[in-house]
TrEMBL record:
This is TerD-family protein. Residues 5-169 form the TerD domain. Belongs to the CAPAB/TerDEXZ family.
Length: 182
């Protein structure tokens, strides 16, 4: 008898960061999910899910959205129901983008980078099992970053890989580039 490989089913991506110091503009980080179809695995996403949106089929939702980082633990949480995605959706790239990029820490102008935001961290888990944890300390000059990639194999099973890469791009540029071949 051959085994049936289940792969990943329902995954949670969580993001945390510390609030800005008193009297400075709030730091607003956002989780972004780009879904790619079989016809164009690295080009234009067929779905882009971020703050204020969800996937049309309801398989990706932003459960918690913070604009300040205030709270306990993880302030922004996105759920991906990979097992419910249609078979033509074969790749999901998860990213994080810093909003309010026009006002760097200290009011010096320019784009905020991960060096300007204290206490950053991410966690990716399925159920109670952590698949990955990390932070953005290694990407101090980046204004956005990819974090993870989920891919569907020929059997339909989803797998996961960490893809921590920094980008020096505004949010629009980042969403166009985040799924490209690197």
């Amino acid at each position: 008898m051959t085994g049936v490989r289940k792969g990943l089913a329902k995954v949670e991506v969580a993001l945390r960061w510390d609030p800005s110091p008193a009297g400075t503009p709030a730091n607003d980080l956002d989780v972004v999910a780009a879904v790619y179809g079989a016809a164009d695995r690295h080009g234009t996403p067929v779905q882009l899910v971020h703050f204020g949106s969800r996937s049309p089929d309801g398989t990706i939702t932003l459960n918690r959205d913070s604009h300040t980082g205030q709270g306990f633990g993880f302030d922004e949480v996105m759920t991906l129901e990979l097992h419910r995605m249609s078979p033509d959706k074969v790749r999901v790239v998860i990213g994080v983008v810093i909003q309010n990029t026009g006002a760097a820490a200290g009011g010096t102008g320019g784009a905020k980078t991960f060096a300007d935001v204290a206490g950053t961290g991410f966690r990716i888990r399925e159920g109670h099992t952590d698949l990955a944890q990390g932070d953005f300390a290694g990407l101090p000059h980046a204004t956005a970053a990819t974090v993870a990639e989920f891919t569907r194999d020929a059997s339909g099973a989803w797998s996961f890989g960490v893809r921590l890469e920094g980008f020096e791009a505004d949010p629009e540029e980042f969403t166009r580039a985040m799924g490209g071949v690197r």
